[in-house]
Amino acid sequence: MFLSPRYKFIIYLFPFLTPSIHAQTTQICDSTNATTNSGRYTFFPDITTTDKDGYQCTDFSLADENSGSVGSTTLFNTTFSWSSSPDISTPHSFPSLTLNLPSILPIPISNISLFPLTNNWALYPGNPLHTISATSPDSLLNASVIAACYLNIYLDLEPSLSLDKRFSATKISIWQANYGGLIPLGYNDTASTITRPVINLAGISYTLYVSQTSPSTSSSSSSASSNSNSSTVVNDEPQVPQTIYTWYPSVNATTLTAMDISPLLNYLWREVYISSNTYVGFVEWGLDARNSVGNVTWSVYETGMTVKPGTPVRAVGMGRRKEVGRGEMLALVGLFVGAVVLFG
After folding, report:
1. Peptide bond just before 106 cis, omega within 30 deg
2. pTM to 2 decimals?
3. DSSP per-residue letters across 51-71
């Protein structure tokens, strides 16, 4: 992949790194991934669009900084520019960090005592600037940014399948922030009489939405990639029917400090949405990027996460019994074939 002048311009704009960190930084402008020195985290650019006028470049730190709460943290800058071509119904890219814990993952969902998540980031128009430390929704609106930050957790009754997001039967998506009106799949589904479960964590109310997707209804990236350069476009679309449980927040949050999200997982198996024997495997945290006018930068100044086995914590909130039962959800698989486009 040849770098356009726009790529070359942002190469020199990474001033917030210290010299020692800068020396351990790698730049990724294609489908290449990179793993931190400790092996704990791997960065994936996950470019899934055929938008010929767009691009994405990331400066990723290979250094880990020790953190007692989440083990270690790292940082990166991703600059992208995506148009609405071919459409914005699916992510154009999902620059993300995956968690590598082979001594723990996969693990039964009912055997997780803590799942702390730490991150501090800003999303803003333009190239990387160390002087910007906060996200301005108005500036993103002016730049027509459509994006969302969330954590994806993939699960399956078969441990090996839980480690492959293409073949996992279940996905739990915990949203952190969204811009440009992006909403999760299932947000507008079902009658208004349905009472959705709500769980309160760290002053944020998370509402549960449930949806179903299948290979035939989430293949937009797959069909598009057949006309693309395979070295720059990836296809991580589900190859099996997948149930998606999305926890959607009442407010955007760009800073989390060791926030334990395990109660959101525990609610699902305690209320029998998910079997307690289901394994948590592949874990990724990233930005669903779909549209912008000009360059937009996602500066992640700190990010880290971990999973700790043990006795689970019970969720606090106004949780209700499931809005769609497990049997009903299985029946919906056929109903949704050809009718749903996967979000994230």
Report:
1. yes
2. 0.83
3. -TT-EEEEEEE---EEETTTE
